[in-house]
């Protein structure tokens, strides 16, 4: 019998190794799997390459993972936001590596990684500093740069509803990178607000088919990151 | 080279007469958005455009974090941290809206399904090059977001921006000194002094603030203007 449900975030992230490449869903706070990230901090794997759109806020979630010196390199599109304090500090001191990727290219590199496409051409970043050094080709008179697919050892993803097969539904704009990250990681770990019986999710509405998911853990009441940041909370508590 | 604004220079600019205010600029952009358009509004000044679309036009707003049919900001107390725009501010979804993942969202952008994108600018060149993501200063944290994908894929790019920097330098220049977002991508520029079309034959002034002369406009601009 297939049952992808595990009982705790700690169990879900227990196999992450030093040096792993980890995709983390979320656009800012929306869709960020904060309980899985905190479990990864407790777990302690270091030297990680993290692929995520941003670099976290305040001193919780992804920012806390970076602050705990577990991340060697960030691959992201927008590493600074109003409340991001940890990454800018480390970056200015040369203590963390950054690969800056246009947001759509980031999404497509992850999609390609999950779809078995090793590289593709995009018009984004042509004739800009982010296109420098990349292979260029002209199709129908327009220039494109080649971008390589991104895949990962692990994806940590937040969703709204899951079943034991790993079929997933998301909540509003918290969906963002979750579906493509689930496809592109060797092991996709999902925290879900609800876990329902197989068959309770209408097959017509499934967003991530269960084949892309390896484990699901219920986090019924996930932390509200912006509240934690406003209270200046720090993880580990 | 454009310098960053010092306080004394800022005061000089704020006394400059005869400029449209930001709502007036946003309204001029809004009047040029046809009924039925799919539109992406950049963060900041471009967001105001939504407030001025005439009531008899239906415009669908796309936000690249995964919502088509973005509505206005929610009433106080109704904010949902999982319903946000690309600037990470809480928004609402109109009846008939839909959510999608990032790869689909940028399929809409890169695949030329979005009709108009309105963006801010640090500099615009006379050939329509846009610089709006980085001043290139050493030590600055580079952050690009979706700007490069938007200018590469959207059918029409409007820029809304003040005509001059805080220190009074022109933002419309013969050649950008800041790192580019995209080359030859801007179609029309809306500033506090004029509306200017970027064409293969150069920059053409469509409309000027009624209280300024063409010579004054040219003097405030770092590239040759035509009329």
Structural features, described:
Chain A: This is 3-oxoacid CoA-transferase subunit A. Chain A: It comes from Natronogracilivirga saccharolytica. Chain A: InterPro entries: 3-oxoacid_CoA-transf_A, CoA_trans_fam_I, NagB/RpiA_transferase-like. Chain A: Keywords: Transferase. Chain A: One of its GO terms (molecular function) is CoA-transferase activity. The complex is a heterodimer of chains A (237) and B (227). With 237 residues, chain A is of the alpha/beta class. Chain A has a domain of 149 residues: 3-Layer(aba) Sandwich (Glutaconate Coenzyme A-transferase). Helix content of chain A is 23%, strand content 27%. Chain A contains seven helices and twelve strands. In chain A, strands 1, 2, 3, 4, 5, 9, 10, 11 and 12 form a nine-stranded mixed β-sheet that branches. In chain A, strands 6-8-7 form a three-stranded antiparallel β-sheet. Chain A is globular. The relative contact order of chain A is 0.20. The mean pLDDT of chain A is 97. Chain B is an alpha/beta fold. Chain B has a domain of 155 residues: Glutaconate Coenzyme A-transferase. Chain B contains five helices and 13 strands. Chain B has a ten-stranded mixed β-sheet, sandwiched between helices. Chain B has a three-stranded mixed β-sheet with strand order 7-6-9, with no helix packed on it. In chain B, a hairpin with a 3-residue loop joins strand 2 and strand 3. The longest helix of chain B is centred in the first third of the chain and has 10 residues. Chain B is globular, with a radius of gyration of 18 Å. The two termini of chain B are 27 Å apart. The chains are: A alpha/beta (237), B alpha/beta (227). At the A-B interface, helix 4, helix 5 and helix 6 of A face helix 3 and helix 4 of B.
């Amino acid at each position: 019998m297939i049952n992808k449900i595990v009982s705790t975030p700690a169990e879900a992230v227990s196999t992450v190794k030093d040096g792993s490449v980890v995709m983390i869903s979320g656009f800012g706070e929306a869709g960020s799997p904060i309980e899985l990230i905190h479990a990864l901090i407790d777990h302690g794997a270091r030297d990680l390459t993290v692929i995520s759109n941003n670099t976290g806020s305040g001193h919780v979630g992804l920012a806390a993972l970076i602050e705990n010196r577990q991340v060697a390199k960030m691959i992201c599109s927008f590493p600074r936001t109003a409340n991001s304090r940890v990454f800018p500090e480390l970056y200015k001191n040369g203590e963390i590596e950054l690969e800056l990727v246009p947001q759509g290219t980031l999404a497509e590199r992850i999609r390609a990684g999950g779809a078995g496409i090793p590289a593709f051409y995009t018009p984004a970043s042509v004739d800009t500093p982010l296109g420098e050094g990349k292979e260029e080709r002209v199709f129908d008179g327009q220039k494109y740069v080649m971008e390589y697919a991104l895949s990962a050892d692990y994806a940590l993803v937040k969703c709204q509803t899951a079943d034991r097969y790993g079929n997933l539904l998301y909540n509003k704009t918290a969906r963002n990178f979750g579906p493509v990250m689930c496809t592109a990681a060797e092991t996709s770990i999902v925290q879900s607000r609800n876990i329902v019986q197989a068959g309770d999710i209408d097959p017509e509405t499934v967003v991530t088919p269960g084949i892309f998911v390896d484990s699901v853990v219920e986090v019924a009441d996930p932390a509200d990151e912006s509240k934690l940041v406003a209270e200046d909370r720090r993880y580990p508590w | 080279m454009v310098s960053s604004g010092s306080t004394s220079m800022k005061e000089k600019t704020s006394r400059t007469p005869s400029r449209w205010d930001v709502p007036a600029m946003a309204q001029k952009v809004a009047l040029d958005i046809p009924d039925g358009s799919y539109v992406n509004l950049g963060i900041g000044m471009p967001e105001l455009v939504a407030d001025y679309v005439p009531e008899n036009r239906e415009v669908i707003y796309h936000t690249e974090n995964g919502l088509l049919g973005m509505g206005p900001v929610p009433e106080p107390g109704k904010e949902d941290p999982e319903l946000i725009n690309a600037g990470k501010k809480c928004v609402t979804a109109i009846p008939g809206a839909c959510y999608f993942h990032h790869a689909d969202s940028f399929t809409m952008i890169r695949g030329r399904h979005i009709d108009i994108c309105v963006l801010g600018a640090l500099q615009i060149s006379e050939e329509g090059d846009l610089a709006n993501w980085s001043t290139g200063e050493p030590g600055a944290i580079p952050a690009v977001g979706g700007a490069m994908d938007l200018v590469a894929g959207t059918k029409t790019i409007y820029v809304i921006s003040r005509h001059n920097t805080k220190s009074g330098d022109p933002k419309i220049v013969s050649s950008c000194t800041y790192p580019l977002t995209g080359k030859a991508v801007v179609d029309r520029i809306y500033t506090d002094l004029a509306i200017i079309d970027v064409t293969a034959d150069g920059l053409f002034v469509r409309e000027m603030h009624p209280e300024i002369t063409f010579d004054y406009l040219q003097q405030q601009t770092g590239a040759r203007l035509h009329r």
